[in-house]
Known about the structure:
By secondary structure, the chain is mainly alpha-helical. It has helices at residues 3-23, 28-37, 43-64, 71-76, 78-101, 104-125, 138-159, 164-175, 179-201, 209-212, 214-233, 240-259.
Amino acid sequence: MSLFKSIKAFLGGGIIGVLGGLIGLGGAEFRLPMLIGFFHFTALKAIILNKTMSLIVVAFALPFRLDSIPISTLMENSNIIVTMLFGSVFGAWFGAGWATKLKSHMLYKVISILLLMICVILFFGHDISSKVPLFDNNLYSIFAGVISGIAIGIVAALLGVAGGELYIPTIILLFGVDIKLAGSLSLVISLPTMLVAFFRYSKDQSFEVIYSLKSFIIIMGIGSVVGAFIGSRLLGVISSEVLIPFLCFILLIAAYKIYNHK
């Protein structure tokens, strides 16, 4: 890979990392439009690359959070993990299989619609909080958790994201846990879900992009980690009232451009 392309990959990953760090997410929802619009990958290859880098980010993020949310606390909430995971792995398998079968022009349309959905959730659900579960009946909570897991697994597989922007508000609303615990539970659920989607994508010939672009993935991944650190340091500098609408505006532009992508 040329020096110029390496610099672009590092800077691109850094920008995405900063955006993700500012809102407490991996930034994959912003990385996908960049892979398509700036680096000119086809939709399916961009999704697979995005999924690969998202998997790396989640694999590192989970142990990093164990100091604040220990394994014992996660195991105390294993019912939430099992409930959401049961649905999300099915959703991930279905979503990844669907993506490999869709024609490119249709996949661009699906991606743009899902980015709009992420924009709405980001705008209205970023600061969501709840003290109590949504349902008093455990059976209702389990049913809602499985259905939500299926839906989120599909979306995460289609966009190549970890799905934290969807898992976290869902877990908070359904089960009434605090946002820090919800974030760690989201990572635990995301990791096996992403591995299922990753395995499903490996059956498609587009998966070869991972082998041919190993250097690109590593360099952009390093840039993302550096950017995420910088973004986390800027949390107290930029207020959510300014940041969230700005990021939603970016997603709206990306959705429009991808929808009209040729």
